[in-house]
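FORM 12-B: Structure-to-Sequence Request
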């Protein structure tokens, strides 16, 4: 029991460290820059645009998406079903995304609002994106596909 507790604490510390890049400093810089800019006159197009969105990372490259397609094609449905995807998500993803996918620690995206394809999801988990840790070498290809499918089916409903 003690060993399990110690392992859980170490894993939690690892993932909080892996998900951290002090994004609050980036936000502070961007708000300072905006406040120093002169005010612009409002136009009709500005009024029609929605409120400012979170800054996004560049999209996945075509090579990364092709690798994700290859990974998906290389795993069988039986192998994916055999993975405890919910357990893997809780162990490896919940530290930043939360158990329900909407925790958003250290800039983690709200997975409940995710509209990306399975290929994009696999590519993001495999290669990482923005502050997200790349999980190639940490999870097997089958586990990555299983977790991506779990997110799509159970979290991003």
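FORM 12-B RESPONSE
SEQUENCE OUT:
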């Amino acid at each position: 029991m003690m060993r399990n507790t110690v392992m859980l604490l170490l894993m939690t510390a690892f993932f909080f460290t892996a998900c951290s890049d002090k994004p609050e400093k980036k936000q502070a810089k961007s708000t300072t820059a905006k406040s120093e800019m002169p005010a612009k006159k409002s136009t009709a197009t500005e009024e029609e645009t929605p409120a400012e969105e979170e800054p996004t990372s560049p999209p996945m490259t075509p090579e990364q998406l092709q690798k994700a397609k290859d990974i998906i094609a290389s795993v069988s449905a039986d192998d994916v079903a055999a993975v405890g995807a919910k357990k893997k998500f809780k162990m490896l993803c919940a530290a930043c995304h939360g158990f329900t996918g909407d925790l958003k620690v250290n800039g983690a995206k709200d997975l409940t609002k995710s509209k990306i394809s399975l290929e994009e999801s696999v590519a993001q988990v495999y290669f990482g994106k923005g502050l997200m840790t790349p999980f190639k070498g940490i999870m097997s290809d089958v586990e990555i596909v299983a977790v991506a499918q779990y997110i799509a089916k159970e979290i991003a409903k």
